[in-house]
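From the shared-data thread, chain only:
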Amino acid sequence: MDFVLTLHGHLPYVLHHGRWPHGSVWLSEAAFDSYLPLIEALRTLETKLIASPLTLGITPVLANQLAHPSFISEFEAYMERRLESAAGASAASRGLGRRAARAGREILARPPDPHAGAVPLRSMAI
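Structure, as tokens:
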């Protein structure tokens, strides 16, 4: 193997510190713009049986926030605000936003597996 990608994710604890500018919006933006696209890309590679040598490190602070019950409600509120702001956008953009919101809800609905550790994506509960 000639290449291995190592990613490291961290955010300070922002839940319960308001929404903007350094509150739950920051965490929701990271989830929507970084983590969800990464998960979807990895799932696509997995479906196509393409090896994806990747190490993903998430700090305990970030993992705790993503697993916290209030993050789900904050993320849903964030997505609703994004969809409302996209209401004036083109039909294609609105469809993309709805698909992204649906994908985000599906991923968040899956219970996390605290014992997943360094295992292949197919066996991880995300």
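Confidence is low (pLDDT under 50) at residues 115-126.
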